[in-house]
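Reviewer has doubts. Consider these tokens.
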Amino acid sequence: RGGGISLHRTIPSVRAMRRALEPSLSVGFVPTMGALHEGHLSLIREARRSNDVVIASIFVNPTQFGAGEDLDKYPRQLEQDKELLTDLEVDHLFAPDCDSMYGPNHVTYVEPEGFDDIAEGVSRPGHFKGVATVVTKLFNIVKPTNAYFGQKDAAQCCLIRRIVHDLDMDVNVVIMDTVREPDGLAMSSRNAYLTEAERKVAPIVYQSLCTARDLYHGNGGRPIAAQHLQEVVESVLRSEPLVTQVQYVSVDCRETMRPLQTVGKEGAIISLACKIGSVRLIDNMVLKRI
């Protein structure tokens, strides 16, 4: 290493690079949509620590955005992102355009059954089909040994593990803890949309999850109604006037993201989506086994 980062704008360019690598080398891959923050960078650092070669991708994937979502205003800052990746000694950056990834006659999608029925899927119909398709394509192009994702997108992590298992992909999926600002707000490219006043109250999202976690742990492993945990989270969120909408609070099985009625010793994942002003924020917390 030391030659700086190589930028690849086309699939043939990545394929040629990948073919030239010694088969014995491990390849760490961090797929992103750019607008990189410390959450992404923690994934990059782990990839760099654990692999011979590190490849990052930046692609704002249109098929995972629904009608009326923020595809057009999603932050794009390739040069800035490239500098950050260079500083962290990433070897290759794959930054394709839309036409490279989805040709004019593209008709093939990966449809993960049931994911439109989980809380985040109901909130964003078709989103997971878009994610499943682009991740499958990126894995086919890059052929990584290890791929790194952040726990903040809980349902996405569950989905990617599922795809890799169901479609027999030879990729080790590594899920890293959510990286937070000092006040608890989960790092997200969308935080940039928050006004100063909204940013000030945004930690309420994390605080609501902490309240549920404390309630769960304070119960000593005795079964607790999922609805009770949901209500606690919602009441904390609704106590803040700048929270304009609570889209969902969901208490689910950590492996399947299917809703639970009660949470006992085995734990759960509690996830939410809400709007502060007009900005949609998601967060989650794993209620660990007691």
